[in-house]
Every structure is written in structure tokens, then in C-alpha cells.
Write a structure and sequence with these properties.
Distance between the termini of chain A: 75 Å
Number of helices of chain A: 9
CATH architecture of the largest domain in chain A: Orthogonal Bundle
Structural class of chain A: mainly alpha
Structural class of chain B: mainly alpha
Oligomer: heterodimer
Largest sheet of chain A: none
Order of helices and strands of chain B: HHHHHHH
Strand content of chain B: under 5%
Helix content of chain A: 55-70%
Largest interface: A-B, 69 and 66 residues
Helix content of chain B: 55-70%
Strand content of chain A: under 5%
Chain lengths: 190, 173
């Protein structure tokens, strides 16, 4: 099996196999959880939640692992991070005092707004992902290329095509004016 | 790729699209194996890749999971777990039942000689208690009646005086 770990005895409930699995991967899960945890979070409790999720319901989650599709280390890291994030979300209760909420947000205005009919398939999933990484994660082209395992030129090309689609859809007149265009217009008037 | 002015415009367009389109469809999170498969890039099948990319675009935080998973696959884990943490996790799977010492069957009987000793001891204690009680009681009666104490409790027990159980008043003085 991937990473040299045979999960067969483990998912059959073999105690020795489980103990060996814990010893081998506890450090990995600890590192994964630590990266997600906020200050003050109990890291050990989060790691225990991850192990509990793995052996819950007769090792149901572990049984879904397929070594032909992904490495065990990769899979465990993703499971650990998502479990920790879910646990933190459950335990953390966000409280905002009402005095801190702007009045505008509390106001109720009776308006009928016609939702814009937007074609869901305007951008491909790859284009959406590239734009997200560029403009929301502030990642560089080379970082995106490494993350998506594609060529940097492919990233640039994907970005260019996506922006063309967005500009076309939102129409030229709705587009914010570039500073050089505004200056050129002022010269022509003057 | 783009100049600063172009980037500002691009960001504005992207944010506008995000506001108007991103909430339109609730995307189901892919299972961990699909995400891991995407991270390891073992498949270029669009049917598998596109749902993951679509979900990642809607959940940018998960991009960090992807990058962390790739990094973890390449390097040894930087953290070392404590023995307490390991023991706690090991405890999630109980020790198998084969090591449990079975209780004795209900209704199992002790050896015969042991029962005989127990019952014999109980009988002997009852006899001794009775003898002591009889002796003490008889001595008290004799003292009260002014009669000389008879020789030996055993004599009293085996050959009681003729007037012990008599109801005649004369015998009491």
C-alpha cells in the first residue's frame, strides 16, 4: 500500500496495527492540526478528534481510502486539517455586541431587487480557481503554476481568457475608466 | 502579466463577479480522497478535476489544505507527538477480549471437604456457645438459689439435679 503502511489489519480492528498507525502518523497529524489551530486551541484535543474520526463507525473513513488515487500522507493531511477546522468552528461561538454593528446593517428596507441572471458557466472551474488564487490569495503566477501543476504560461493564458469573458459580460460601458483614458478625454475636451 | 492599472480593473471585475455569481449554487464539498487525488495530481480526468477546482474557487481557504498536503507528502513531519498524545489515541481502540480473565461460572460448587469443614465449624461454634451459655446460666441460678455449685459444667449438662425443672417452691430455698 502507499507509504508502506498496510491498512488491512488496521481496518479489521487489529489493536497492534492501530497502535502502530498512531505512532507513525501522530506527528503528521499534529503538524497539520497546528497549522490550522488558532491561539489558545487545545492542539492535543484536535489531534484526538482526528484519530477519533478515523476509527469511528468501525473505521468507516479509513475504509474509503484508496491508495491508487492518492498518497496516504496527502490524504491524512487533508482529513486532519478539515477535521480540525470543523471542530474549531463548532467550538468557537462568534459574538458581536449589538453596539458594534452599524445601524445600516440592522435597518430593514423593503426593496424589490431583480436578481441579475448570471450564467453559471461563464467561467470554467479552472478559470475561477486561477482568479481566486490571483486576486483573493494574492499568489504569484509561479506559485499558482506549482500548486496546480501546470505551466506558468498556462496560468497567464487562463487568466487572460477569464478576464476577456468578464469584460465582455459586464459590457464596455460598465467598465471603470482607466486613469490614462480619463486623462486623454480631458485633453480632447481642452 | 498585467500592469498596476490593469490589476485594479481586473480585481474590480472579479469581485463584482464574485458578489453576483458565487452564491448562486451551493457547492458540495468533495470528499477528502478527491481532494487528495487532486493534490497528488494522479488523474487528469476532467470529470474528477473540475468539481474539485470549482469547489476550491468557492472555498479559497481549502487551497491552503492542498498546498499543505503537497508539502507534507514531500517532507518528514516537523512535529513529534508526545507519549501522552499517542497513548490517548491508542486508547480509542480497546484491547481485544482474548486477554480478559473469564469469571467463574455461576453455580460452580466448592470441593466437598471444604463444605464439610465450613459446616462442621459452624456446628462446633454453636455447641460451644450453647455450653458456655448453659454453664453461666446454671451458675447464676445456683448462686441465686444458695445451692453449692455443682462440680463441672459437663456434669450439670449430662446429669442435671432432680429439682432443676421442678416447680415446687420448697426446692428453691
Amino acid at each position: 500500500m502507499a507509504n508502506g503502511t498496510d491498512l488491512g489489519p488496521l481496518i479489521r480492528g487489529d489493536k497492534g496495527a492501530w497502535d502502530g498507525f498512531v505512532r507513525r502518523y501522530a506527528g503528521l497529524l499534529l503538524a497539520a492540526v497546528r497549522a490550522v489551530a488558532r491561539d489558545g486551541a487545545d492542539i492535543d484535543d484536535l489531534v484526538q478528534e482526528v484519530f477519533a474520526r478515523l476509527c469511528k463507525d468501525d473505521f468507516r473513513l479509513l475504509k474509503t481510502y484508496d491508495p491508487t488515487r492518492a498518497g496516504l500522507t496527502t490524504w491524512l493531511t487533508i482529513v486532519a486539517r478539515s477535521t480540525a477546522r470543523d471542530a474549531l468552528r463548532r467550538h468557537h461561538v462568534r459574538v458581536t455586541p449589538i453596539e458594534d454593528v452599524p445601524e445600516a446593517q440592522l435597518a430593514v428596507e423593503d426593496r424589490h431587487i431583480e436578481p441579475i441572471k448570471f450564467p453559471e458557466e461563464l467561467l470554467s472551474p479552472r478559470q475561477k480557481l486561477v482568479l481566486t488564487m490571483l486576486y483573493e490569495r494574492d499568489m504569484e503566477v509561479t506559485e499558482i503554476a506549482a500548486a496546480l501543476k501546470i505551466d506558468p504560461q498556462t496560468v497567464r493564458s487562463t487568466h487572460h481568457k477569464a478576464m476577456l469573458k468578464l469584460r465582455t459580460h459586464f459590457a464596455v460601458e460598465g467598465r471603470p475608466e482607466k486613469p490614462e483614458d480619463a486623462a486623454a478625454k480631458a485633453d480632447r475636451r481642452g | 502579466m498585467t500592469g498596476p492599472g490593469d490589476r485594479t480593473e481586473s480585481v474590480a471585475l472579479w469581485q463584482k463577479w464574485r458578489l453576483e455569481a458565487s452564491a448562486a449554487t451551493e457547492r458540495v464539498a468533495p470528499d477528502p480522497l478527491a481532494l487528495a487525488a487532486y493534490a497528488d495530481r494522479r488523474s487528469d480526468d476532467e470529470a474528477e478535476v473540475e468539481p474539485v477546482e470549482d469547489w476550491l474557487a468557492a472555498n479559497p481557504d481549502a487551497i491552503d489544505d492542498l498546498l499543505a498536503a503537497r508539502q507534507a507528502a514531500l517532507a518528514a513531519p516537523p512535529s513529534i507527538a508526545s507519549e501522552a498524545l499517542i497513548a490517548r489515541a491508542c486508547g480509542l481502540v480497546p484491547t481485544p477480549a482474548g486477554n480478559v480473565v473469564p469469571l467463574r461460572r455461576a453455580g460452580a460448587r466448592a470441593p466437598l471437604w471444604l463444605s464439610a469443614v465450613r459446616w462442621g465449624g459452624l456446628a462446633a461454634s454453636l455447641v460451644i456457645t450453647s455450653m458456655v451459655g448453659f454453664t453461666l446460666g446454671n451458675s447464676a441460678y445456683s448462686n441465686f438459689a444458695g445451692q453449692p455449685a455443682a462440680e463441672g459444667a459437663l456434669h450439670e449438662l449430662l446429669d442435671p439435679p432432680l429439682n432443676v425443672f421442678s416447680e415446687d417452691e420448697d426446692s428453691s430455698t
